[in-house]
Amino acid sequence: MSSTEIEIVVEDPTAPEPDSPAVTNVATIDAAVSVLLLALSATLGYDNWRTGISWDATGPQPGYFPFYLSVILGGASVYGLVTSFVSRREAAETFVTRAQLRRVMAVFVPTLLFCLGTQFLGLYVASFLLIAGFMALVGRIAWWKSLLTAFVFTAIMFVTFDIAFDVIMPKGPLEAAFGY
User: Fold this and answer.
1) Tell me, what DSSP letter sits at residue 141?
2) d(CA 19, CA 93)
3) How confident is the model at residue 178 (pLDDT cuts 50, 70, 90)?
4) Using alpha carbons only, what angle is made at residue 54 by residues 51 and 60, rounded to the nearest 5 degrees?
5) What is the torsional sign of CA 52, 54, 55, 60?
6) pLDDT digits (tens, 9 = 90+) for 105-164
7) 3-state class of 122 per DSSP?
8) pTM of the prediction?
9) What are the pLDDT digits (tens) for 148-161?
């Protein structure tokens, strides 16, 4: 038996089911991203045009190079938009299924809440909650292990950044209560 005939199959028990219904297709996402990039390039182009896109006695004005970069971005966005409408092959391709989107949202939503929580709770408390939550809810690790790991990691981060290197990090009410 040659080594090319040996196949090792590893099943992932948390893998999304293969018969999950499609949420959207590739052509729709291509068009949506192209429209968003076109809006960004128009905004950047206008702002740089407002600050000056020509040459004066000292050289290029502040918006000269960024304006032309936004023109290139706008051209690429228009090209992407046209190809998303013209391409029929990608129209049938599934971009994401419901099960895959659920898995992505299981990471995206807590991360978004972490970013918002950092503004009110500070970096360390928000990090503690994110780590403990991910370990316990997504990783299905025992709560005591999740809380202990999150506490140790957050304490090491605090000692490293705030005490050892004196780096200014976003603080919340808990740090203020301890005088930091």
Assistant:
1) -
2) 14
3) confident
4) 85
5) positive
6) 999 999 999 999 999 999 999 999 999 999 999 889 999 999 999 999 999 999 999 999
7) coil
8) 0.69
9) 999 999 999 999 99
Closest by alpha carbon to 126, among 139, 137, 111? 111
**Structure tokens of 177?**
């209560």
Token pair for 95: 């971009």
Cα–Cα dist 91/29, whole Å: 10
> Do 48 and 66 form a contact (C-beta atoms < 8 A)?
yes
Across the chain, what does the average pLDDT equal?
Answer: 90
Tokens of 165: 């290197």
Residue 124 CA: distances (Å) to CA of 41, 85, 132: 36, 46, 12
User: C-alpha dihedral over 67, 72, 75, 81, to 10 degrees?
Assistant: -110
Instruction: For residue 180, give the 3-state DSSP assignment.
Output: coil
> What gap in Å lies between CA 86 and CA 155, rounded to an integer?
54
